[in-house]
Amino acid sequence: MAVETHAWRKPVRRIAFLVFPNFQALDLAGPLDVFAEANGLVPADDRYEIVVIGPTPDILQASNGMQLVPDICVGAAGDQYETILVVGGPDVPTSQPDKRLVSYLCEQALHVRRYGSICTGAFYLGAAGLLNGKKATTHWQAAPLLAKKFPSVSIDPDPLFIYDEPLITSAGVTAGIDLALALVQQDFGSGISLAVARKLIVVAHRLGGQLQYSPSLVVSKSGNEKIERFKTHVERNIRDELSNAALARALGISFRHLSRLVQDEMGITPIEYIRRARLDTAREVLANTKLPLKVVAHESGFGTVEKLSRAFKTRFGVTPIQYRSSFGS
Amino acid sequence: MAVETHAWRKPVRRIAFLVFPNFQALDLAGPLDVFAEANGLVPADDRYEIVVIGPTPDILQASNGMQLVPDICVGAAGDQYETILVVGGPDVPTSQPDKRLVSYLCEQALHVRRYGSICTGAFYLGAAGLLNGKKATTHWQAAPLLAKKFPSVSIDPDPLFIYDEPLITSAGVTAGIDLALALVQQDFGSGISLAVARKLIVVAHRLGGQLQYSPSLVVSKSGNEKIERFKTHVERNIRDELSNAALARALGISFRHLSRLVQDEMGITPIEYIRRARLDTAREVLANTKLPLKVVAHESGFGTVEKLSRAFKTRFGVTPIQYRSSFGS
């Protein structure tokens, strides 16, 4: 009889969030508040129903200490959801994911309309095989490890979220709010998602991607002595031209040899490494001083404001001036 | 003996959050994550210790449905905190605040280094008398009611937070993250707060204040027929000049009479009302179309791009182009 009654109702928008011990509270609370605010603006029979699913019914402690009671445990969660999202947590990239949640994800991915992750939740999707052959993103800090663990995934560490339907993955922490706003926009249009953004005091579309938040430099695999000398030399001479010939001379090895070494150890060319070191220097100077752009360009070795601005915009999606107004003190 | 052991320890940074049924989860989770991330970057003996205090030890449901277990109930919370912050919730402005939390705030304000609120948590501070004679802010939607309930407070609805020491109040919801970053900056400097912002994928300093998120128009107290005709006339003729004489002619009353009426009912002059109506029109056109600024200026009755830009920047702290990139679709 219950089934017949349900048949008269419009299909509801049920969203499940998967959580686990030491999850990042903001990964959950941000998107939850987006969906809850949308509920205040849409017809009553078209509202989201949200369920927070834990590995067990026990209280979970978030990484910030907050204590959460899951609405239901995964064994009793059933398969009535339209959307499933996994949150992240600081130890997710380097620890074993909860097997109950992974197998639930595997099963449910066949039934749901869309599934996704916030922040390092992407490692759960990877473990469930749901990233294979897809485009995805995650927290900038975890992107290299995600790429290493799941080599068949095409990972872009820059966008705030990537919607490669039915998969949606977001960048770090608060990018989960951007992801949830995109789902609200898909479901109810941009008018509703804009109203939700205004209510929560977030912008509907952020300027630039995730890369503006992360350090540009890559770490080398080993502590190779020549690589360390190369890095130190770049750091100490960042204002100078740093030509191939000058580098080879200063380090006492051929540029060809250096180039092979840097590529093997860091996965990028020496020129790209120098460009990123210059960008990081420029960002430090922009954030911590009020020096004019001309001086910033000189201090970081770009030489001209034009070269600095072009490289900056290409990598971070914002201009040096926009960056300074967001991160300067 | 316990006391003596404690005497050897550096004084810890204890922060208490006050929560209650139907609180806004993001008001709590955002700042909590800021302090927790800062803990990963500072010396172990200088870390924040955070306690979430509820009216009772019972599970609390947030407005988004999330179920939280407070760390302690207010009766057992003691007076060992350096900072006390109250979160907001959707029904706080129009309901009776929890008396146990209000009297705890009253007592503790005498001992703590600083106290404050996130979003509509300001109503709790008001009820405890802690806003009297101070400058404060709250969610844009609740600002008029806060001003009415606590007339001795100087309320500015624009800033993302106001630090009138020892009182710190923040604008709506995610502005709690901005508030927490400001406290981390005060405690540990801008290097640490910048690193926390980058980890959570938020900017350290947002462009513009809260007003860019709120509708500009004020509601009239009563449904006065002349006021309604004035509003409709402005809405229908927003592209035109709307001079005092033309308005008086169109509405069939003297401008002096109209002016008194509008001021009594809405607390602003007719000219200010028209300016805000133009700004709201400009924002709608900016967000929903790709029309050039010249056309936006015409459609909203500002006439020239220069006049539009000046009025826009003055009220919202951002240019029309910056607004479009944040809120346009």
Topology, please?
The structure is a homodimer of 329-residue chains.
Chain A: H1 2-7, E1 13-18, H2 25-39, E2 48-54, E3 60-61, E4 67-69, E5 72-73, E6 83-86, H3 99-108, E7 114-117, H4 122-127, E8 135-136, H5 143-149, E9 154-155, E10 161-164, E11 167-170, H6 175-188, H7 190-200, H8 225-236, H9 244-251, H10 255-266, H11 270-288, H12 293-299, H13 305-316, H14 320-327
Parallel strand pairs in A: 1-2, 1-6, 2-5, 6-7, 7-11, 8-9
Antiparallel strand pairs in A: 3-4, 10-11
Structure description:
Two copies of one chain form a homodimer. With 329 residues, chain A is α/β, with parallel strands linked by helices. Chain A has two domains: 205 residues, Rossmann fold (3-Layer(aba) Sandwich); 103 residues, Homeodomain-like (Arc Repressor Mutant, subunit A, Orthogonal Bundle), CATH 1.10.10. Helix content of chain A is 45%, strand content 12%. Chain A has 14 helices and eleven strands. In chain A, the strands form three sheets. Chain A has a seven-stranded mixed β-sheet, with helices on both faces. Chain A has a two-stranded antiparallel sheet with strand order 3-4. In chain A, a hairpin with a 2-residue loop joins strand 10 and strand 11. The radius of gyration of chain A is 23 Å and the shape is globular. The termini of chain A are far apart. The N terminus of chain A is likely disordered. At the A-B interface, helix 2, strand 4, helix 6, helix 7 and helix 14 of A face helix 2, strand 4, helix 6, helix 7 and helix 14 of B.
